[in-house]
Design goal:
The protein is mainly alpha-helical. The protein has 19 helices and six strands. The protein starts with 17 loop residues before the first helix and ends with a helix. 39% of the residues are buried.
């Protein structure tokens, strides 16, 4: 048996079994929240003093004691005790040892239920800012890369088959759009993170006339929760953060997948920085895109972590249940992935060198302008479905003759449709093809430059 936890052991005759204490302790995970826990306690102590629950002398002792505890933790001199279960009780117990009975008043009207939600929201606000900063760094790299590759021809793909000519700058800006939406989602998530639960108590509220709005503002929140039962049991904000990270992880995985494919000898579209690749323990010639593979592979756990939280919450009755102790491990794991993968992806793209010749070879190897031929016929007055069929026949003829579409003679093309004239060949030129795609968002360099200008405005570059 272990010593009873003095924070709640009053009604118990027996001490907690050692195996129960070990099984239920969360200190190895939630001690990450020490800064937020101390900040929340300082603010709550000030609210208690304003409400007349503690006096100014007691407030000063509490603040001084908490400052000492923070210094001990940050200098790695704090004695974390598993028997005290979590970060909250470890800090409160240490505070009592430092300042005496005044520490026993700090938890007046406050429960670990509203305390942990407060800590976690403050922590996620800080981590959201860090993630947004990393996304912004990556977006800036993408914009600058796209600007330098705005005229670089490459094949666009559907079904992993060469489809239509595009520019590399256009493709890089597609990556930008994906991650730009991620940035917006983290911004939107912060609106809900800035709603403070502190003052909700265990579930029924607080009777000590705490000024909840003033307390919330002192911690940087902008609003307070409207229902104390929901406030202590809500984990939507954790799930939302995990969803944002998992979707961003999917985007990073897709980008990494393309970098992996493009860096293969079969494609040879990109040369990744040597310092971000690894070799083989048996094959001396290998240069493996391991960082991209780890970004791709690591995104899987963020999806698993999201599903873990959804599963954790789905059968819980209101209000708080100890199940929620299990929310932090998956959350912290996903946050670590988010920051690491963004950093390494930024470095990979910043140092990537694109092989224009390989891209251009693939642009001119195949029937990449078949759609342009169909659209040329549409401009001659032929309905698109008929034009599509004629262009398909032209592709068939080229393949049978072992020629490119652009290598077919005018005579051969006119056999397919008499309306085809000599001007058809400029529509079979990939360079002319991309310049013609000048709709908003299209691959024409003029449009890509507009996309880049808009992106620079958003990033304030």
């Amino acid at each position: 048996m272990v010593k009873k936890n003095t924070s709640w052991g009053g009604r118990f005759k027996k001490q907690t079994a050692e195996k129960a204490q070990k099984f239920s302790s969360s200190i190895n995970v939630d001690k990450k929240l020490y800064k937020e826990d101390i900040s929340g306690s300082v603010a709550y102590a000030e609210a208690l003093q304003s409400a007349g629950v503690i006096n100014k002398s007691e407030l000063a002792k509490i603040k001084s004691g908490l400052k000492q505890i923070k210094q001990k933790i940050e200098s790695d001199k704090f004695n974390w005790q598993e028997a005290l279960e979590d970060v909250h009780m470890n800090i409160e117990s240490a505070l009592e040892k430092i300042i005496g009975s005044a520490a026993k008043k700090l938890h007046t009207g406050r429960s670990r239920n509203d305390q942990v939600v407060t800590d976690l929201k403050l922590h996620l606000l800080e981590k959201s800012k860090e993630i947004k900063s990393c996304i912004t760094d990556l977006l800036e790299v993408l914009v600058l890369k796209a600007e330098s590759e705005v005229d670089t021809l490459m094949p666009g793909f559907t079904h992993m088959q060469i489809a239509q000519p595009i520019t590399l700058g256009h493709h890089l800006m597609a990556w930008f759009e994906m991650l730009s939406r991620d940035l917006d989602r983290f911004e939107e998530c912060e609106i809900r993170l800035k709603i403070s639960p502190l003052g909700s108590g265990a579930l029924a509220g607080n009777k000590f006339k705490i000024n909840r709005m003033k307390l919330a503002k002192s911690l940087g929140f902008s609003e307070i929760t409207k229902n104390s039962i929901d406030a202590v049991s809500d984990r939507d904000y954790v799930i939302e953060m995990l969803f944002n990270i998992s979707l961003m992880g999917v985007h990073l995985s897709r980008i990494s997948e393309e970098l992996i494919i493009w860096s293969s000898s079969q494609f040879d579209y990109v040369d990744l920085p040597e310092e971000l690749c690894t070799g083989s323990s048996i094959m001396p010639q290998k240069k493996n895109p391991d960082m991209a593979e780890l970004v791709r592979g690591g995104s899987s756990k963020t999806i698993g972590n999201l599903v873990t939280l959804l599963s954790l919450i789905k059968n819980q009755p209101l209000s708080y249940n100890r199940d929620n102790q299990e929310d932090k491990g998956p959350l912290f794991d996903s946050i670590e992935y988010a920051l690491g993968s963004l950093d390494i992806t930024t470095a990979m793209i910043a140092g990537a060198e694109f092989n224009h010749d390989s891209m251009l070879t693939d642009v001119y190897d195949g029937h990449i302008c078949a759609t342009d031929l169909a659209e040329y016929l549409v401009m001659k007055g032929i309905p698109f479905r008929d034009a599509h069929a004629i262009s398909g026949k032209a592709v068939q003829l080229a393949e049978t003759s072992d020629l490119l579409l652009s290598e077919l003679s005018l005579k051969d093309l006119k056999k397919l449709n008499a309306l085809i004239e000599k001007d058809v060949f400029k529509h079979l030129d990939p360079l002319k093809s991309i310049t013609s795609k000048s709709s908003i968002g299209g691959t024409a360099p003029s449009q890509v430059l507009k996309q880049i200008a808009h992106a620079k405005d958003k990033l304030k570059l």
